[in-house]
Amino acid sequence: MDNTPHVPFFIPVIRELEKRGHRVVLTARDAFQVCELADRKGLRYLKVGQHYGKNSLMKVAGLFCRAAQLLPFYLREKPDVALSHGARAQMLLANLMGIPTILVMDYEHIKTPPLVAPRWEIVPDALPTNGLHSSAGRVRKYRGIKEDVYAPDFKPDPGLADELGLREAGLVVTVRPPANEAHYHNPESELLLNRLMTRICNIPRARAVMLPRNRQQEQSLRSTHPQWFEDGRTIIPSHAVDGLSLLWLSDLVVSGGGTMNREAAALGVPVYSIFRGKTGAVDRRLEEEGRLTLVSNADEVEKKVELKPRDKTRLPDNRPRAALQDIVDHVEDILQTEGLRKG
């Protein structure tokens, strides 16, 4: 588990794989809220490596360092296959050791060096097969979006509003700043974030719940924009909270990244993307379906983003969705194709 969204995604996948007789072993990178959230969910894992910042040379050094740190775990556990949603160090080591790699991914514009390319890919049916890292015969597709894997398990946390001091708020907006350390980051996203926060802070009784990527980003936002945080207008949770419960508590969601946007879409919460990198096929499909609004410039922050309360009386949709079964079926088919055994 390399990034925070991997934790909720893999919980039902692990459950289903174990139900089918497979043994699953976990590692987690000590970055973002990965380990904190995994601890809250009761997952057993080995903590390996950390985040090395946005400097390109440090990223490369960190990739090889974490791969080396994973080696004793691989030698001890002797995995038959390496499964991830984008753990580059895992794929690097597995490729070097001749272990088949399966990458579940949902954004086709990620840069992948040759040594980190997966042997197999499992992707949403919205993604075109051309341009992916694996050959066409090694790409499997699932219906829906990856957030459909865990959305049916969602049960709202009834105490979250009190925990965050939002019970008396007239409008709740969850805001995810852009991933400014990612290789695909576009600084235009910051301009859209600034315009959005100005709008929110000018609405009486409106509250923004901001989820920075890491402590450094939080400190930068607090020092650069102290007015956002005056009189409790903007709240940053002091610890990892249940992400889906926060989205369900919100009137709308605005994010500079992908997963939170798609989580909101999976729950049916109004969501706006201020991501200014290359738009992925999944987001384009969600926009076509009216489940996501893409915001391209500062003027559209004013015109498109509707800062208004939503109806929160309906219950979450907990009906099973096809994505989980499709993904696990594909994993089993790949195992069979590779001639690998269960357990």
* Number of E-type strands: 12
Mean pLDDT: 92
**Regions with pLDDT < 50 over 5+ consecutive residues?**
none
Going by CATH, what is the homologous superfamily of the largest domain?
A: Glycogen Phosphorylase B
Structural class: alpha/beta
User: Assembly state here?
Assistant: single chain
Per CATH, the architecture of the largest domain is 3-Layer(aba) Sandwich
- Computed over alpha carbons, the radius of gyration is 20 Å
Tally of contiguous helical segments: 12
Span of the ends, CA to CA: 21 Å
Compute the number of structural domains: 2
Main β-sheet, spatial strand arrangement: 9-8-7-10-11-12
- Would you tell me which CATH topology of the largest domain applies? Rossmann fold
CATH class of the largest domain: Alpha Beta
Strand content: 5-15%
The outline comes out as globular
The major β-sheet equals:
6 strands, parallel
Helical coverage, percent range: 25-40%
**H/E series, N to C?**
HEHEHEHEEEHEHEHEHEHEHEHH
Question: Could you walk me through the main structural features you see in this protein, from its secondary elements to its overall organization?
Answer:
The strands form three sheets. Strands 9-8-7-10-11-12 form a six-stranded parallel beta sheet, sandwiched between helices. Strands 3-4-5-6 form a four-stranded parallel beta sheet. A two-stranded parallel ribbon has the order 1-2. The chain has twelve helices and twelve strands. The chain is globular and about 60 Å long. The chain is of the alpha/beta class and 343 residues long. The protein folds into two domains: 6-152 and 322-337, Glycogen Phosphorylase B (Rossmann fold), CATH 3.40.50.2000; 158-303, Glycogen Phosphorylase B (Rossmann fold). It has helices at 6-19, 34-40, 56-77, 88-97, 160-163, 188-201, 215-224, 243-249, 259-267, 281-288, 298-303, 322-337; strands at 27-30, 46-50, 82-84, 101-104, 120-124, 139-142, 171-176, 206-210, 234-235, 252-255, 271-273, 293-294. Strand 10, helix 9 (259-267) and strand 11 (271-273) form a beta-alpha-beta unit. The mean pLDDT is 92.
